[in-house]
Structures are given as C-alpha cells and as structure tokens.
C-alpha cells in the first residue's frame, strides 16, 4: 500500500464519536462538493445529488427511476426479481445514510428531498413486492421516514416562512403518521408512539418560543366546523398568500446558499479523492 492509499491520517484528524452522526461537506480534487459521514471503521463518501454512490442504474438518475421505466416498457404488472430487491435494498440504505447526514448538517431541504425519494421507493415496493414479508421489512420504517421528513420540513419552514408554517408542517406530518396507525387498526397506540411524542414536543416548543397561538389553518378548521364560511374564505386566501410568499422566500434562500457554496469554496479539500 502506498502512502496515498492510506487514509489513517484522515481518520486520525476526524475521530469517530459513538452515538453521534458526524457529517461534513468537503471539496473533492475535481472541485465538486461531496458529503462524508464518519463511521467506526472509516468514512462513507456520498454525492450530494442523484444517487449517493454516484451511479446511474441503466442510465437513470436512481434505481427507482430505472424500475419505473422498466415497468412502463413492460406494460404489465411484474413483481420484483431477487436481483431487483437487492438493488432496492441498496438504494434504501444509501438514501438513509445521506438523509441523516443532511439532518445533522441542518440541510433540511435536502433531507426532505431524500425522505421523499425513500417514501416513493416504499410506495413502489408495496405495489411490486414479490412477497409480503420483504415489503413489510421496508414498510415498518415508513413512520420513521415520515418523522424525519416532518422534522426537516418544519425546521425548513421555520427559516423560510415562519413559525406558523412550521407548526402546520408538524400537524401535516402527524396526520400522515396517524393515517398509518389507522390503516393497521392501531390508532389507540398513536399517542404513545415516540416519534409522535417528539413531533408534538417540537410543535409545543415552536409555539412557546415564538409565541404562536392558533395557526391560520387551525383557525380555518374551527371556522368550517362552526359554519363561519365568510371567515373561512378569508382565511383560505390568507393561507394561500402566505404559502406563495414562503415558497418564493425559500427558493431565494436556497439559491443564495448554493451560490455561496460554489463561490466561497469553504469546504476543505478532500485529500483522499
């Protein structure tokens, strides 16, 4: 082994911390930004866009995109083969690693994107699984992925659109998780779920820290329940206006952040690439 192949120096300069998700963005030797995650016996290096491993299965951006293409081409329902299930498992794991890194780095919009990909892959698996046991091995993690997505979306909205929008994202996430419990006739367990408790704590913290009462959407639900339709119409208009403003603000921040990353080159050079 030559000196350049030994990554001992890199590992020594970035010690592993048990129980901590250690992630960083660095510059590869060609100037592109890559994401690294410190694990006990080394470092995982991932691309920041597309598949984390940088592969393009069958020429497509992700393996899910490739499977969708194959399905359209076949024009009939086909269960996944053993080889395909192995590739799906790989993609699930890669996106999990990158998602938790984005959360650790507070790159919330990117965490949402990766969570959405995982949820879409779960949907595909549910429709095309060769057996229920394999499908359930992934479906059991849907509340966990929704928990991550809700956290990330709420905290992104806190920056982009304000505390009311953040609370609404928590409420929407809780509604989606509740629906999962209802689907398996286990709604009585919803309130005791740890993910649900943490999301409620996040919502309560936002209310207390930012002095937020009933959100517009919560007021709208009250108005509809009380048949106050004129008030409901005004609230709907205001909600639509704020959402449009929040999207514009969030897009502006995203573009500014991307510009800073490209122009400043703040990330350190990756000596192992």
N-to-C SSE string, H for helix and E for strand: HEEEHHHHHHHHH
N-end to C-end Cα span? 16 Å
Number of continuous helical runs:
10
Classify the helix fraction into a percent range: 55-70%
Low-confidence stretches: none
Radius of gyration: 22 Å
- Specify the biggest β-sheet: 3 strands, antiparallel
Overall domain count = 1
Categorize the overall geometry: globular
| Spatial ordering of strands, largest sheet | 1-2-3
Strand content: 5-15%
Report the mean per-residue pLDDT as an integer.
88
- Decide which structural class fits the backbone: mainly alpha
The strand count comes to 3
What does this entry look like structurally?
With 273 residues, the protein is mostly helical. It has one domain (10-213). It has 10 helices and 3 strands. The protein has a 3-stranded antiparallel sheet with strand order 1-2-3, with helices on one face. Strand 1 (22-27) and strand 2 (33-39) form a beta hairpin. The mean pLDDT is 88.
Concise description?
It contains ten helices and three strands, in the order αβββααααααααα. It is mainly α. The chain has one domain.
Quick tags:
single chain, 10 helices
Ordered list of secondary-structure elements with their pairings:
Elements: H1 8-13, E1 22-27, E2 33-39, E3 42-47, H2 63-74, H3 82-104, H4 108-128, H5 132-139, H6 142-160, H7 163-183, H8 194-210, H9 216-225, H10 229-264
Antiparallel strand pairs: 1-2, 2-3
Helix pairs in contact: 3-4, 4-6, 6-7, 6-8, 6-10, 7-8, 9-10
């Amino acid at each position: 082994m030559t000196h350049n192949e030994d990554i001992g120096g890199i590992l020594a300069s970035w010690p592993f911390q048990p129980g901590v998700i250690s992630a960083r963005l660095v510059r590869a030797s060609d100037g592109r930004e890559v994401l690294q995650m410190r694990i006990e016996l080394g470092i995982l290096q991932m691309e920041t866009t597309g598949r984390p491993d940088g592969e393009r299965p069958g020429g497509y951006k992700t393996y899910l995109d490739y499977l969708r293409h194959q399905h359209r081409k076949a024009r009939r329902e086909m269960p996944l083969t053993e080889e395909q299930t192995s590739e799906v498992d790989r993609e699930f794991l890669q996106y999990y690693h990158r998602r938790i890194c984005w959360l650790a780095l507070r790159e919330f919009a990117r965490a949402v994107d990766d969570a959405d990909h995982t949820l879409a892959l779960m949907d595909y698996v549910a429709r095309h699984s060769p057996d229920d046991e394999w499908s359930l091995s992934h479906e059991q993690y849907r509340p966990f992925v929704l928990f991550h997505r809700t956290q990330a979306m709420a905290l992104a909205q806190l920056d982009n659109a304000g505390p009311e929008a953040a609370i609404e994202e928590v409420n929407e996430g809780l509604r989606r998780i509740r629906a999962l419990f209802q689907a398996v006739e286990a709604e009585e367990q919803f309130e005791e779920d740890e993910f649900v408790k943490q999301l409620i704590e996040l919502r309560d913290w936002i209310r207390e820290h930012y002095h937020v009462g009933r959100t517009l959407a919560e007021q709208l639900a009250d108005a509809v329940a009380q048949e106050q339709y004129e008030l409901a119409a005004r609230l709907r208009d205001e909600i639509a206006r704020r959402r449009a403003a929040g999207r514009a603000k969030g897009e502006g921040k995203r573009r500014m952040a991307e510009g800073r990353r490209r122009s400043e080159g703040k990330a350190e050079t990756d000596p192992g690439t």
